[in-house]
Amino acid sequence: GLQGQVAVITGSTSGIGQALATALAEQGVNVVLNGFGDPAKIEADRRALQERTNAAVRYHGADMSKPQEINDLIDYAVSEFGRLDILVNNAGIQHVAPVEEFPPEKWDALIAIILSSTFHASRAAIPIMKAQGRGRIVNIASAHGLVASPFKAPYVAAKHGVVGFTRALGVELARTGITANAICPGYVKTPLIEAQIVDQAKTRGIPEDRVMEDVILAAQPTKKFVEYEHLAGMLLYLVSDLGASATGSAMVVDGGWTAT
Ligand code: NAD
Fold first, then answer.
1. Which pTM value belongs to this model?
2. Among the CATH numbers 3.40.50.720, 3.40.47.10, 1.10.10.10, 3.20.20.70, which is that of 6-186+227-254?
3. Which residues are catalytic?
4. Atom of ligand 1 nearest to the CA of 12
5. SS3 28
């Protein structure tokens, strides 16, 4: 079982990362949380998760755009728990604008936080997992790792990069006992998406309720948001022993979006 294993989940103070960290802690996995936010809320959430589960829950505030802080995050997990079994690269941001109006510094931030952080964290984790003879790297990509939408070119590029990196990592690590997989969610109603509804309304010049119906859920044949539990189900499969043959894959959980 997963009981007693150790996981780092980047970007887990909100949304999908927080839900995935919770799902792991509920299985008895000791977790290191990471991400930005109000320190008092982060500490209250950390404590509540630890009290509600029989997992030890820690927090490290590494900025995932800074390689040295990413190394510190992985070192912290090992110094707290003596091992590292699961790395979930989830931290992400979004900015929506036409390419010719896209601020170059936002391009740099998107590539750093979504794509380069996945490289730096994996690079730091792999020697530890190799020494243990087992490991699980799960990168939260997106349906936008497989298909495109307008006004999100840097995000689409970064997520395609995450899928490509994951494939390469899966192949490279295939004989080590470490698997590397991506999960490609469709739309999930997180704070990131709520902010995007506001942005898209401005960019497209339409009201917010129409963005939800005509832009967001239009993409998904189910006409429903993907639920946190459905992503947690895929994560728990990938990190378990049943997931041992899945590597280098892009697992799609998108309400049928990329099938259309
Ligand atoms: P969110 O905004 O709710 O959470 C993002 C998390 O990343 C937060 O904890 C935030 O503090 C953290 N973060 C942002 N910048 C960081 C940095 N520089 N250093 C450390 N942490 C940082 O967003 P979410 O919707 O839960 O997104 C999580 C992941 O899932 C992202 O990679 C996103 O691209 C991906 N995703 C989301 C959706 C969706 O519909 N919400 C769909 C597909 C993929």
1. 0.97
2. 3.40.50.720
3. 155
4. 9
5. coil
